[in-house]
C-alpha cells in the first residue's frame, strides 16, 4: 500500500507567481506571494506592499472584470486569451480620509487565475469572518498564533529568546528582559533554548493572561464556585439581561466547565489585578455555596463568554420592516457616481457598487444627453462621464447583495425626451421585473399610504420630478390660493358691506374655484394618459406643446414622484407618493425656526418621504452631520460616502444597528401623531469604565506600513458623545471632568455638540494596557430618542493626531454591563484582534 504523503504547498504560497499588474497607463510583470499564516498578499512595486486579505472588499474575475479590462485597453481577442482579474482591496492607510484602492491583475492563464483566486477567497472568508464576529475562539487563537509565529520565527521554524523579544516589541508587549527570560524557561520544556510552535502557543497563553477578568471573577464569587446562581445574578444585575431563567441556564451551560478545566493560568509578569468598582448596579460577591462539579464557570470560561457574541456590546438589530417606508430612516448616497470631489472627481460605476455593498438603499444619478445614449456626471464641473447603461448593469448586479430591501434611484434628468425613452429602455432591460412601474393595463388607484420595505423587497424604484404634472400642480395651488383670498374677502364684506357687494365677491370666489376644478380635471386627464388609461383614438387636449418629459419615464414614478417644495402647512398638501428635496441650508432654516413650522414638517414626514442633500459649496465632497435632519424626521439624508469624515462615520454607525440593511425604524417620538413624546425632555449620564485594551494595532506610516522600529506606543482612550443640539440650554453639570464642545461656525449650525472624556495614557504598552478609568458623561434627550445620541470610543497615541482605532454606535444600541468592543480602522473595518474591555451603565436623573 502506498505511503500517505502530504501534498506540496502551492508555489503561490512559497515562491510566488508572476502576474501582470496593470493600470490605465502601464502594465508591469510583478511577483505576487500569499503569506497564508499572516493572511497577506505581498508584492514589490515602487515600495513593498502588503494587503491584508480580511480587508478585501470584493474579488472580481472573468466577465465581472471585463469592464475594467476594456478600460485598460484590452481587446475582446486579448480577453479570450487572458482572463481578467480585479481585486478591489482597501489598503490600511494611516490617513483618516484614505480612499478605496483597486488592484488590477492579469493572470497568464486560467489555471493560475483559479489557484490564486481560490487561495485569496479562502483566506478572505476565514479572516473577514473572524473580524466581523468575536465567536469561534479556538479558530481566532489559532490564526493569531500562526500569524505571529510566522512573523517572528526564523527559517528553522524556531523562536530564539532574541527573536521572541523582537516579536514582543513588535506586538507592543514591552516586558523586561528578566521577565521574558522567566516565561521563556517556563515553556522551553525540552531545554533547547528555542520554542517550537506548540511551545510558542503556551507562551502566548501566559502573555495574554487577563488579570482584569481574574479580578472580576474573584469579586463575583470570591473563593466559592462560580455556579449558575452567581451567573444569573451577574447577568441580571450587572449585564441588565432580559433573558429568562431558562435561557440563562442554556447560556451558562454553553460556557461552563468542570472545576478541573477551570484552573487559573500559569504565573505571568505582575500587573495590577484590581478592577475599580463600577457604578451602582454591579453585584457584590454572593455568600459561599457548595461546589457543583458539572457546572462551574472558571476564569477562562468567563473570559470566553465575555469575548463572545453572546456578550456582544451591541444589541441585536431590529427587524420589523412591515410599516410604511415613510416611518424609516433610509441609508442614502449623494453624488454616488463620484469617487473624488465634486469639481474634478472621477465618475464611475465603482461609486454605485461601493454604496450598495455598504447598504445604501438610495443612490443618485445626474443624467444628461450623451453621444450614444444618456450619461451621468456632475453638471457644470470637470468630472468625467459614465454611461447609464454601465451604471444600471452594475446596480442590477449589486442592488441586493448587502440587503434585500428596496433601492431608490434618485434621478436628476437633464436629457431630452428621446434619451429619456432610451433611459427607460435601459432600465427595463437591466432591472426587468424588479423595476417598479405602471403597466398600461393597470387602473389608476389612489395611494392612501406608502408600502412597506418588506412589501417592496427586491424592487427598484425611480424618483425624479414629474415635469408633465409639476406645472399643473403649481397652477392648481395658485388657483386655490386665489380662491381662498376671494372667499376671505367675501366673508369680510358680508359683515361690513352691502349684500350685493358680498354676492359679487362670492361669485368671484366661485369663478376661481371653478377654474381650479378645471385645472384639476386637466391634470387628471394628463395623469390617466401617463398611466395608459386614455383610449388610443383620443387626443391629448391639455398639451399643445412638445412635452418636456417622456411618458415612458413618467410611468416609472409610482411611489416616488418628485415634486417642488411648496412649503408645509394646512394649505400645502402632498399626496403620500410625492417627495421633495431640500438643501441643508433650507432645512437648517426650517429647523431653526422651530415652533409650528417644525411640527408641521415632522408631521409631514410621518406620511411622506423627504430627501436632504448637501449644499453646493461642498466642492470637496465633505459631509454635514445628519443627526439634526434625522431628528426632524427626514428619511433620505444623503451623504458623500466617498468622504470618510465624522458625518460618514455617524451614518455608518446608524445603519450598523439594522445589520446594514439600509432601513432603520424611526423612534416612536417621530411617528406619534399626538406629539406627546416630543414634549418630553430627559437628562442622564453615560457611566463608562475603560478597563483595558487587547492587542492594539501597530502605528502605520503615510503609506500604510507598520512602523516596526518605533512601535512602542503610549495609548489612551477618549470617549465622545455626539448629541443633537435640540436644546438651547443643554444639560451641563458643574463637574469639570468632562469637556463640552458646542457647534461652531466651523462645524456648522446643524452639527452635534460633543461631550468628551479621556483616560490618562499608559506608557509603552499597546498589547494589554490597563486603564481602569471611570468617567461620567452627561447628556440630554428629547422624546427618549437615544438612537440619535452617538457614542464614540477613540484609541489614540500620546502626542499623536491620528487615531489608532475607534468604535461608534448609537447610545440606544449599546448593551450595558461588562463588554468587549471590537475596534475599527479609519474606514470602519474591524481590526482582527483589537478590543476594548469596558463597563457601561446608562441612567436618567
Automatic annotation (TrEMBL):
Coiled-coil intervals, chain numbering: 506-533
Gene3D superfamilies, per the entry: C2 domain, EF-hand, Phosphatidylinositol (PI) phosphodiesterase
Region (Disordered): 268-294
Keyword Transmembrane helix among record annotations: no
CDD domains: C2_PLC_like, PI-PLCc_eukaryota
Protein name: Phosphoinositide phospholipase C
EC number, as in UniProt: 3.1.4.11
